[in-house]
Amino acid sequence: MIRLDKLLARSGFGTRKEVKKLIRRSEVLVNGQIVTKDDIKVSSDDKIIVQGIEIEYQDKIYLMLNKPDGYVCANSDDVNATVMDLLDFVRDDIFCVGRLDKDTHGLCLISNDGALSHQLLSNKKHVEKEYYVKIAHKLSDEDIIALEGGITIDNDEVCKEAKVKVISDQEIYLIITEGKYHQIKRMLKAVDNEVLYLKRIRMKNLILDHDLKEGQYRYLTDEEIEDLKA
Ligand code: URA
């Protein structure tokens, strides 16, 4: 159960104060009855209509977005567009589960499930994140051994072991289990290389849907959510 005014605010009908005004103007109906109090509690089973439009409220939200270049993983930003601008709804309780850099593409998981987020991001859980990486130069065998063995970046930060799968001279898949700041870029820099293009394609067993064009998103299936939580 959730307070109606909180639910409406989360659903994009303005601040709690603005929502209270809607209620006072008799513009909100719950199960066919005009609402007169803003502190009533509702559940997902209740039929809520605001200004003639039925709203669908989901308590827990899980969606995958194919992030394009140029968007920051943040709820708001004074300068840049954010991944939240790509959603066709507004909620104040959702966040990116693990941030990608502004110029990184691919799988961005958006949710309001703090427990799942902790589970996926905690360094202790060793959850795999897989990236497709275009690089400036061919990796040598020594580079691969260094990257896989736990490379030291910026002279003092030691990364956990990683996996490198070579696709071609200038393309690799890189699997890491942590999320240090600019980690992949700094790992490649540590072997005198450079990332030209970076795309996250998997988190744990959640694979970026090939049908999603950049900027598009979809809700996770129940099975995908269960697999992520397992
Ligand atoms: N590593 C990076 O360098 N950037 C990202 O966005 C993700 C991982």
Question: Please, could you describe this protein's structure?
Answer:
The strands form five sheets. Strands 7, 10, 11, 12, 15, 16, 17, 18 and 19 form a nine-stranded mixed β-sheet that branches. Helix 1 (4-10) crosses helix 2. It is elongated and about 70 Å long. The protein is 22% helix and 31% strand. With 230 residues, it is α+β, with helices and mostly antiparallel strands. The protein binds uracil (URA).
Q: What assembly state would you assign to the polypeptide chains in this entry?
A: single chain
User: N-to-C SSE series?
Assistant: EHHEEEEEEEEEEHEHEEEEHEEEH
Strand pairing plus helix content: what structural class? alpha+beta
Mean pLDDT: 94
Given as residue ranges, the uncertain stretches (5+ residues, pLDDT < 50) are: none
Rounded to the nearest angstrom, the radius of gyration is 22 Å
Let me know the largest β-sheet.
9 strands, mixed
Distinct ligands: uracil
Number of helical stretches of at least 4 residues: 6
The total strand number stands at 19
Strand fraction equals: 25-35%
Terminal-residue CA separation:
26 Å
Tertiary shape: elongated
